[in-house]
Design goal:
By secondary structure, the chain is mostly beta strands. The chain contains no helices and 19 strands. The strands form 4 sheets. Strands 5, 7, 8, 10, 15, 16, 17 and 19 form an 8-stranded antiparallel sheet that branches. Strands 6-9-18-11-12-13-14 form a 7-stranded antiparallel sheet, with no helix packed on it. It is globular. The two termini are about 20 Å apart.
Length: about 375
């Protein structure tokens, strides 16, 4: 099966409310035609049962953080063939319904319950892009994406660089690979970008994320203000006009820069440093919704593992007043989507993995 990209691309210009520098604009690299990602196919065989699966996105259980147990590794006497999930499955992937005699099956490190694994839901009918990051060799840049490393689309992007954004076969939610973002430098981005279809004014994004550094429920450190995992960008290869999701003053939330945006943060100061959080070294499902169907009433919502963590539905939800150009704060933002890591915190270093991305015009879901 092929993961299809149906259309093509972009958002930032700070007013320095939190001391963020303005960045130079580099020459943007254009995209080719539609990109694709191969569907993951994997199998695991024990003495008592065989598990196999093929599917878009990947498997995930409902019972806690994603685990790494090998399906069916402890089966002993089951004789039937069971069907489980793809790639790095979670939960009890050993015995299927036909081989449930005594085959125990693999278990997860995240405490998921026994039973068959569950695939994330298929993309909605109006999904226009999905990538499971299976297409391409580990240690290479994912096909169809433009790198944005150290504020440049032409910077080196190899496993030995201090910042990189590369496929990685050492960890994944499903299949054999994810995309790995590594950054060590303060404010230095390790990111990938891709164009959105022209005319987009509503976007639902779902991606599984694992970060080495906890995000949210942390004491803010001044004068830093935010870390970025995902962003909308107005101008390709320009970090000065963006709406970002990640950590904002120690809490999960949004930050935006650009004309009249004033480096605004959400949540408000009373919630800085608050829960919930992205626990480190754990796969989490992040869902974002951006709506500008009515430019006078833009909205942004963020959920983690099915729990709403932040909403912005009014200019009063930002921590500073917005300028005239910022009143319609989502205008111009739907040109490019950005994934990766950029930190304005101390210390800035982090490793982030992402897998099973879907972009759609309607909600996607995690399980």
């Amino acid at each position: 099966m092929t993961l299809a990209f149906v259309a093509l691309v972009s958002a930032c210009n700070p007013d320095l409310a939190d001391g963020e520098p303005s960045f130079p604009v580099m020459n943007a690299q254009g995209f080719g035609a539609a990109g694709s990602g191969a569907v993951s196919t994997a199998s695991s065989t024990s003495s008592s049962s065989t598990t196999s699966s093929t599917g878009v996105s990947s498997s995930q259980t409902n019972g806690g953080s994603l685990g790494s147990g090998a399906a069916g590794s402890n089966g002993s006497t089951g004789t039937g063939n069971g069907t489980g999930g793809a790639g790095n499955t979670t939960g009890n992937g050993g015995s299927g319904s036909a081989g449930a005699a005594t085959g125990g099956g693999g278990t997860t490190s995240g405490g998921a319950g026994a039973g068959s694994v569950q695939e994330p839901p298929p993309p909605p009918a109006d999904a226009f892009f999905a990538d499971d990051f299976e297409n391409g060799a580990s240690g290479t840049q994912p096909e169809g994406w433009t790198r944005w490393i150290n504020y440049s689309t032409n910077a080196s992007n190899t496993p030995s660089d201090p910042q990189f954004a590369l496929l990685d076969d050492q960890d994944s939610v499903s299949g054999n690979q994810s995309v790995h973002f590594h950054a060590t430098g303060n404010t230095q981005p390790a990111m990938l970008t891709r164009a959105l279809p022209p005319g987009t004014n509503r976007l639902h994004l779902r991606v599984f994320v694992k970060t080495s550094v906890q995000q949210g429920s942390r004491t803010p450190d001044n004068p830093s203000n935010h870390d970025t995992l995902i962003a909308l960008r107005a101008t390709p290869n320009d970090g000065n006009f963006e709406l970002r999701f990640g950590e904002a003053k120690g809490a999960l939330g949004f930050n935006m820069v650009g004309p009249g945006r004033n480096d605004a943060l959400a949540p408000l100061p009373a919630l800085w440093g608050s829960a919930p959080l992205l626990s480190p070294d754990t796969w989490h499902c992040i869902e974002l919704e951006f709506s500008n169907e009515d430019p006078d009433r833009p909205e942004a919502h963020a959920s983690v593992d099915g729990q709403l963590v932040r909403s912005v539905t009014s200019t009063s939800d930002w921590h500073v007043p917005l300028g005239q150009d910022g009143q319609r704060w989502l205008n111009g933002m739907f040109n490019e989507v950005v994934l990766g890591w950029q930190s304005f915190s101390n210390p800035p270093a982090n490793d982030v993995w992402m897998d099973d991305l879907v972009l759609s015009g309607s909600p996607i879901g995690c399980d």
